[in-house]
Design a protein that fits this description.
This is DUF7962 domain-containing protein. The protein is of the alpha+beta class. It contains 9 helices and 8 strands. Strands 1, 2, 3, 4, 5, 6, 7 and 8 form an 8-stranded mixed sheet that branches.
């Protein structure tokens, strides 16, 4: 922070990345991946059966909602130069809601390390135990591999995060071989993709504002437990990190999977999309949510 390009779009959500498809703005990688899979139904990343989709979903919940990523973030080495920057540590404290004092990070490390070590053991002794190359026994990595691998691969590439006497190829050979295969596939995929265009923030903002909408919203489920009506003025914010940054607008979509807000920016309507889980939806006016 600050992020003037997002602010120019009227987006208060502070985590990155965000994804814009036309005037639809998607917040949180969970909903981004889901929408991309909907747009490209023949993607080789998609799970092909309900059983495989269940494994994929389980791994998404395990890494994000069950605390694996939170514990991974607590293993950031205390000798990182950024931790000597008071602006950075203040920003991280605002984001996470917890202290980023070096002593506090060091105090949290043993518990975090125990949790991550348990995660490595789980992958080694269950998911990968039969020698499969990929999580769903496919020929190439799928979204299930992405959902499972990212916090562990991130830590493995972060110098000083993992004590090699406890977590290495020696203790978890199947996991480390899997990470190596994944990164090889990733580099090959990057080499084959079209080169993406890079836009300055103001150009990207104008492109978004001048576009159409990418999709219709899910509508507001009248049987949803929150009992909101279409058009209710609400605010939406994550419940785990970045909780102080709220987006406000009219509710135009609400179901089991998604929340959609309509906001006005520079005279244009934008729709902000969030996953349902991990986000709170609150009416701005008491009683405005009740059905009559």
């Amino acid at each position: 922070m600050p992020r003037p390009d997002l602010k120019a779009l009227g987006v208060n959500y502070r985590r990155i990345p965000v994804m814009a498809i036309g005037r639809d703005i998607y917040c949180d990688t969970r909903i981004m991946l889901r929408k991309l899979e909907e747009l490209f139904p023949n993607s080789p990343l998609r799970a092909s059966t309900s059983e495989k989709k269940a494994i994929e979903k389980f791994l998404e919940v395990w890494t994000i909602e069950a605390g694996i990523f939170v514990r991974a973030s607590q293993l950031i080495p205390t000798n990182m130069p950024l931790l000597n920057d008071p602006k950075f540590t203040k920003d991280r404290e605002d984001f996470s809601g917890r202290s980023w004092n070096k002593d506090q990070i060091a105090a949290n490390r043993p518990e975090a390390l125990a949790a991550i070590r348990n995660g490595f053991k789980f992958l080694e002794t269950t998911v990968l135990a039969d020698g499969r190359q990929w999580v769903l026994k496919t020929d190439r990595p799928t979204l299930a591999d992405i959902e499972a691998i990212w916090p562990f691969d991130w830590l493995n590439g972060l110098k000083g995060a993992l004590p090699r006497e406890l977590i290495s190829e020696k203790q978890y050979p199947l996991v480390f071989a899997w990470m190596a295969r994944f990164n090889k596939e990733l580099q090959e995929a990057k080499a084959q993709r079209p080169k993406p265009a890079s836009l300055k923030g103001d150009v990207a903002v104008q492109r978004i504002l001048s576009a159409g909408f990418a999709q219709k919203g899910p509508g507001v489920d009248i049987d949803d437990p929150l009992a909101f009506q279409h058009g209710t003025e609400v605010e939406v914010f994550p419940t785990d990190s970045g909780t102080k940054h709220h987006d406000r607008g009219r509710l135009v979509g609400l179901d089991e999977d998604e929340v959609v807000l309509s906001i006005q920016t520079q005279g244009r309507e934008l729709r902000l999309h969030y996953p349902r889980t991990g986000f709170r939806v609150k009416a701005l006016r008491p009683g405005s949510h009740a059905r009559l």
